[in-house]
Amino acid sequence: MANENPDEIKGLNISKDITIGEFLKKIRHTGFQATNLGKAVEIIDKMKLDNATIFLSFTSNMASSGLRDVFAYLVKNKLVDVIITSVGSVEEDLIKSKMPFLLGSFDMDDVELHKKGINRIGNILVPNNRYGHLEKVLQPFFKKMHEKQKRSGKMISPSELIAELGTLAGEDSFIYWAAKNEIPVFCPAITDGAFGLQTFFYKQDHKDFGIDATADMQRLAEIVLQSKRTGAIILGGGVAKHHTIGVNILRDGLDYAVYVTTAGEGDGSVAGARPKEAKSWSKLKEDANSVCVEGDATIIFSLLAFAMKGGK
Amino acid sequence: MANENPDEIKGLNISKDITIGEFLKKIRHTGFQATNLGKAVEIIDKMKLDNATIFLSFTSNMASSGLRDVFAYLVKNKLVDVIITSVGSVEEDLIKSKMPFLLGSFDMDDVELHKKGINRIGNILVPNNRYGHLEKVLQPFFKKMHEKQKRSGKMISPSELIAELGTLAGEDSFIYWAAKNEIPVFCPAITDGAFGLQTFFYKQDHKDFGIDATADMQRLAEIVLQSKRTGAIILGGGVAKHHTIGVNILRDGLDYAVYVTTAGEGDGSVAGARPKEAKSWSKLKEDANSVCVEGDATIIFSLLAFAMKGGK
Amino acid sequence: MANENPDEIKGLNISKDITIGEFLKKIRHTGFQATNLGKAVEIIDKMKLDNATIFLSFTSNMASSGLRDVFAYLVKNKLVDVIITSVGSVEEDLIKSKMPFLLGSFDMDDVELHKKGINRIGNILVPNNRYGHLEKVLQPFFKKMHEKQKRSGKMISPSELIAELGTLAGEDSFIYWAAKNEIPVFCPAITDGAFGLQTFFYKQDHKDFGIDATADMQRLAEIVLQSKRTGAIILGGGVAKHHTIGVNILRDGLDYAVYVTTAGEGDGSVAGARPKEAKSWSKLKEDANSVCVEGDATIIFSLLAFAMKGGK
Amino acid sequence: MANENPDEIKGLNISKDITIGEFLKKIRHTGFQATNLGKAVEIIDKMKLDNATIFLSFTSNMASSGLRDVFAYLVKNKLVDVIITSVGSVEEDLIKSKMPFLLGSFDMDDVELHKKGINRIGNILVPNNRYGHLEKVLQPFFKKMHEKQKRSGKMISPSELIAELGTLAGEDSFIYWAAKNEIPVFCPAITDGAFGLQTFFYKQDHKDFGIDATADMQRLAEIVLQSKRTGAIILGGGVAKHHTIGVNILRDGLDYAVYVTTAGEGDGSVAGARPKEAKSWSKLKEDANSVCVEGDATIIFSLLAFAMKGGK
Questions:
Q1: Would C234 disulfide with which of A126, C57, C127, C301, CB 3.0-4.6 Å?
Q2: What is the pTM assigned to this prediction?
């Protein structure tokens, strides 16, 4: 049977070794989520060709995983233009540039881990000293930001804060390269997580220190409004996803969207919402190119990253 | 076969009609998630008996659904002590006290909905005029908050803002009763959603208006630190869940936790993380009573709400 | 806000205690899967009013759970007309009429359970002696069936075999009542599971004993062809679901279908396929009343069972 | 940061193009399901090195997808020893060797497809003439099998039937190569699906034709009992999975198991059951090497197939 008909279901020829790039070109015809993976590659190609402003949105567990290193590569090489994420991503990216996270397993005994001072995220382990290190960086950092606030007379925005923090991170981190390459990292819930607890500790003695949550909307809105085209790669759900698609209402919707999620749409969650729902909201254009790939981003985005960098 | 052995699998006797309360008492022995539902009831009973400070955490799609009316009942009757949620919940609760959301279906044509000016959340429809109404409330409200900021010399916190907004909402809304009953509503991503876009519009002409994201940490931390016991009912994931369990690190963890989620734990997401993972982090005590019920909260929490109010 | 508009999203009024019947009548307006649960109730009411032949299809884990007792009630009271299931259901129903299954937990140590001779199905435990009992029943039973085969000169069909076995089961089992009430139990994979292994043992010394897999198609087809209307309640997926919808092709499709599943449709699995897909196949009529409720059947069907028996 | 520590979380280096083989070697350190994918590769390597008898189990939607071509390659090259699947796989493999399946989309209008005579499996389309072709092959084939039955005086077993059918299939099909290479294809529910309906039609005029469901247990049991080691690659759930692990009880369990599934374990389904549960049942050895990769097999197994063939 011929392989060449674009409308036929056809699996991969596995008789010879192929590159990821070749895999991604052929996988569309296997059906089901393989088709969606193949479509995602096509949409990424189009958004690059079209010089769209590319938003990369991800939840913090993605940064807990090795995808953080992939994000750093993409930001270093200016393959994305805007990042929208949870504050955990920023914390963990910073920590990892000093101390690695460790590989564990999903079914470890959490009470025993707790006794040993090891925190678990799925099958990833984060010993407490990582957070000790974070505290040691953040407290003097907040002091510096506080002084900046006092000098300027206005509270810092989350994206400025992250850019400043990026200069303290190692060269393997995405916030370092985001700062270097002036790629904004937006974080609509900056006081969640360890970061939030650290602001609480800092404020014990510095009541007037603050972060203006509203201060980033102007900057983010301008990017959206000044872009000729926008596209988004959205890994997971939560506030990172919602913020990314929500702000694109200002330009009547994204032109391109690739969602990667493990969530279904039956519970009305943002994580599970498919691109088509976003069209009703003007978050996606009526004729936008879009796809949702169902699967864990640690696998799916490790593949798609090669499409983003134009791998052969 | 006798029904009375606590260790035996035994289904419901459906020969006579029973109340939800009776259903919840018996369902534990059916196995699988029915067991977890039954355990959730037992844990809710315990946290109430123990006078734990009860955190209710939910994502905004829960407020899009009819659960919003259940939340309002719980807050009105002081059956919960703290709410942590996404800003969409606050927006939608306010809107609904004026104009209802409508029942649609999951497979509606979103391009057609868009042409008609109707936004879709799963099978729930929100015509654009709901957001027109929101804008009409929020712009003068921000002006009022801005004046308050100027008088006091400091930016408002998200929870204060929501309490003020609650006084403008109808009596069927949870923010109204939260304001009335001084039950704080925390919202760690206050500038997400329509709310965030409205702050952007307001700031066009009022550059100095702001919301201090860090301002709530003290208030939230104090609740956690001053409680003899804490328990949480957590519907869905996202920043609402993460913030709820995260702040309880300050007291070495929640004493009680009931999670309701549709997410699995295989992708390391916060939505899918089970209570045991939280123990490694000191977000849950080592010996905490906890359970995760897998299922859509519109069904699961509609049942559990009867346990919360002590239904027979 | 009024509750009465059928198009509005409205949660339950939890201020007073209600029965399951009342819950099911109101739950539709809560949105998301609650809506689907409410629709399922309406469809069940219609298929009963319409005197449709009702197929009940379930996977064997449902029989492992307490739902087995609910099934027995429904069959005893002739509230279903045909059962299509996996052979595990038949085995476990038989075992349970003698020895109960036990409540365990999902995270038990399986190596330790193995050492103790306890088998696990999710959070349900089945000590090895249950299978010892099954063997003691099945070996003489096969001998009896073998003799019947020799007398009649033809191999027995799966449904006849199960009806014969039903006469050996206790009065709390569905196969007992199915035999009594002449409700056929079809099992398209009769040699799977312990049952299959027992046929292997029996055939060591009785090579000519057999079960004609094709022998049930006539009986099943006639039910389908002679029914004025057909409806199906389908819990889970697998061969039980596929067989139920597949045979209805003979009459150009079911008139009514209620699916309950935890599976999504993204992988093309039968478990995840929604009713609409069945329409393309003539497995469901183009204008069939149908719904899929996403959730664990131990909760969802424990509720729906009250609709099936006409609970108030 | 060094990449070489086996215990550290580390993402892929995407700066250069790599082969699938290289991808699979590195992916383990990314965390979450990427880790499980990497483990699956290691286990496949081990079962091959150990000369284990390799069972490949899959549901019929896998054969609907392009994975069917991958299966054919593996069987042709004797990279698997036993196949256990649903009858739909056999039907579709046969059809595809004559007429391809087509690529559609998940959200097509099924009523319209029905009017056009096109059947849908997820995003895969099967026009009715494919089943017309199947009928034209099966009716004379059953006649031939019937004659064989009359000659031998005994009913054919499912695996013999499939081997005979394989000789009629094209060289791109797995049943062709299974017949050629004497790799048995077991099908515990041979009368499900179109195949079952075709036996019904055939039996209208040939009442004594039959298929002995019990006839394969001896053959399957012997393979299990005579193998020094057994390993299984199990895609999806259902009777194919259950039969594969169930029969390995006869040798106190598989030595190696790789599961690929989209199902969770919370509902006690066979699709969602993890390898550890199988240990309690002696379906997997206590010290077996095993892993479950969560994800759609069209992507996951398209990758793993390269590990099976020893891709670099």
A1: C57
A2: 0.97
